[in-house]
Amino acid sequence: MAPEPSHDPIEAFLAMLAAERGAAANTLAAYGRDLRAAREEIGDLVIADNEAIAGLAEAWRDLAPSSLARKASALRQFYGFLADEGLRSDDPSAALPRPRIRRPLPRLLGHGEIAALFTLAESEAQAGEGARMLALLELLYGSGLRATELVSLPLAAIPRDAPFLMITGKGGQQRMVPVSARAGAALTRWLALRPKGGRWVFPSPRTKVQGGGHLTRVRLFQLLRDLALRAGLDPEKVSPHVLRHAFATHLLEGGADLRVLQTLLGHADIATTQIYTHVDAARLVALVNSRHPLGPGMGAAAQNTAQKVDPAASQP
After folding, report:
1. Using only C-alpha atoms, what is the Rg of the chain?
2. Is 250 a catalytic residue?
3. Residue 141 designated active-site
4. Catalytic residue among 217, 225, 237, 267
5. Does 241 participate in catalysis according to the annotation?
6. Is 276 a catalytic residue?
7. Among the options 71, 146, 189, 250, which is catalytic?
8. What tens digit of pLDDT does each residue of 39-83 get?
C-alpha cells in the first residue's frame, strides 16, 4: 500500500524536489536542515509574516555569504511551493536577505601546461597504469567530465557504434557527451588492458572480486598531481576540476557557443556556465569589432548596405 502524503510542509516540499526536479540527496539534506533551523528560529513557516522572515537576517548575521545565500534560496523555493499548493496566498520571501556572492574565478591551465601533461601521459601509456592515466586525462580535458562522473563511469555508458558517452550527472540528470577521436583511442587502449570483470570502466585496483568498486575521487586527484609533478608542473595547480575548467575555457577560446558548453558541462543554469566568459574578454571584443556589421572591420558591401539604410553610418 502506498504511503500517505506527509502532513509536514517541509517534508512535502522535499518530496516534491526529489520527485519533480530530481534533486540530489545532499541538496535535499541541506535544504531540510535549513528549513528546520528557520522553523526553530521563527516558528511555523507556513504562517510566518514578513517581519518574522526579516528577523532571520539577525540569526544569520555570522554566516558566510554562500551559506546565507543557500538558506535564503531554500526558503524562497519553499514559499513558492506553498503558493503553488494553495497553502499561502502571499509570498513573504522578499523580506529575506539577498547577499551578493562573488563567484571565485576558476584556476586555469594554459595550453602549454596541458600539452606537457599529455606529452608525458602519452609517453607512459604503453603499460596498464599508463594507459589508464591517459584515458582519464583525455576524458577530463577532452569531454569535461566531473571527477565523480568519470570514476563512476560504467561500461554500459560506452556505446559500441557511436562517439558518445551517456553520463548521469548531478540530480540523476542524463546527458550525452561527445568523445573525441583521440580520447576514443585512449579509451579503447585502456579497455583492452583493463582487468577483466566488474561493471566499471575504471575499477579499483584493490578490488579483486567481480562487480567490486571503482577508482575513488581521492585516488584520481592523487594520480593527476603525481603526473603534474613528473611533468615539471606545480601539482597544486592541477586537479580534476581544473582540467574541467580548462576544457570549458579552451572551447570558448575556440569559438564554442555558451549554450552548447552548458549542455556539455551538464549545468542546469546558464549562469553557472557564464563564469567562463571572463577568460577571453579580449577575444570577445575583437570578435565584435571584426564581425559586427557596423564594426571597423566590416567589408565594403556591408558598408554600402549600412550607408543606404543610414547615410550617417559612414560618418566618424
Report:
1. 25
2. no
3. no
4. 267
5. yes
6. yes
7. 146
8. 988 888 888 888 888 888 888 888 877 788 888 888 888 888 888
Dihedral angle of Cα 34, 35, 36, 41, to the nearest 10 degrees: 90
Among 170, 175, 217, 225, which one carries the catalytic annotation?
Answer: 170
Q: Provide the grid cell at 284.
A: 570577445
Closest among 272, 146, 76, 314 to 68, alpha carbons compared: 76
* Three-state SS sequence of 141-160: HHHCCCHHHHHCCEHHHCCC
The H-assigned helical ranges of the chain are: 9-20, 25-42, 50-54, 56-59, 65-84, 111-123, 128-143, 147-151, 181-193, 217-230, 240-253, 258-265, 270-273, 281-291, 300-309
Give the whole-angstrom CA distance, residue 194 versus residue 310.
Answer: 67
The answer to whether 143 and 247 have CB atoms below 8 angstroms apart is yes
Separation between Cα atoms, residue 54 and residue 287, nearest integer Å: 46
**Which entry of 132, 189, 214, 244 is annotated as an active-site residue?**
244
> What digits encode the pLDDT tens for the residues 100-140?
655 555 567 888 898 999 999 999 888 888 999 999 999 88
Q: Which of 39, 70, 219, 241 is catalytic?
A: 241
Has 267 been annotated as catalytic? yes
pTM: 0.54
CB 190 within 8 A of CB 135: yes
Is 146 catalytic? The answer is yes
Residues in the chain: 316
